[in-house]
Amino acid sequence: MIRPSYIFTSESVSEGHPDKVADRISDVVVDAFLSRDPVARVACETLVTTNRIILAGEVRTSDDLIGDIVGGLEAKVRQAVRDIGYAQNGFHWATADYACHLHAQSADIAMGVDAGEQKDEGAGDQGIMFGYATNETAELAPAPLQWSHNILRRLAEVRRSGEVAGLEPDAKSQVTVQYENGKPVRVLKILVSHQHKSGLSPADVRGLIEPYVRESLPEGMIDGGTEWIVNPTGNFVIGGPDGDAGLTGRKIIVDTYGGAAPHGGGAFSGKDPTKVDRSAAYACRYLAKNVVAAGLADKCTIQVSYAIGVSRPLSFYVDTHGTGRVDEEKLEQILPELIGGLTPRAIREHLGLNRAIYERTAAYGHFGRTPDNEGGFGWEKTDLVEELRRAA
Catalytic pick from 149, 275, 285, 366? Predict the structure, then answer.
């Protein structure tokens, strides 16, 4: 049974949060390789801390490209940090120490993933992946998470444009929503912790951010009883990688559904699309979103599982949480075949994942976004709706 009335909270973190800085750098590396070789393999981890950036991981491409691509990474990494806005004494895009420890991919992994005469391309690892969609927002994403993302994305826009002075890149948000009959009806609490220049009080910061927070949420969701909590520690001047070390892949719930749906455990950033942690999670979101967009359910969760080196999924599961208008068993038969049986190759080709489209995903969620003209966020399309309605 789905509880009709409850309170739920989700959080987001800004592009300047240290873990998100690391995610973006790792995806800069993925894009650098895929822009030169669409079938390159990349698994990049990044550590950022006080004036230090360290890359490590495995890559594979042609020998004549790898040196050239790796040699050009430092400039791309520094430009990403500059774009985020870090020019502080403790973390500066131009002066931070940079070290790259990328090396060749394991031959054993490559053997399992590569296609051959007797087998299709296999999954890049074992694991379970989930996708989720809900009709409680226009983006078909959970409201507390979507609104938390909206707040920080808007604050980043006005910070970087210069419209608001005094804000620095690191920030976190948290939105607590009251649900009645399964639908969000009001925002109970808004929490924003935002790095700022010295001399500003929490009241000053609230005065800077409140107009943009209000415009980031649907009209009527904030009322006179909404509780505001801004910079509860009292001071947030030291932040970013200088205040807390950042690592790739530590914000997986922020990246997905804010706790409203399960997560398989694997991170996304820094991985090329042969890694099903990333590509199959995108495919599951794509299928779940189309189920909801087609009106076949109000909510939909999908799980898929893989074995390393094996192309076909080991299992496929659909749960419409009691809101479905089509049998879940029927959806389990229909959905995988809409993407070629959900093999890694079929997912990559259907969603156009072998492109340099990943840096833009690193902050404000991989889901609930708008597909762009360059192929980014293609898994957010709802182009299966009519086909699903006919099949179901």
Answer: 275
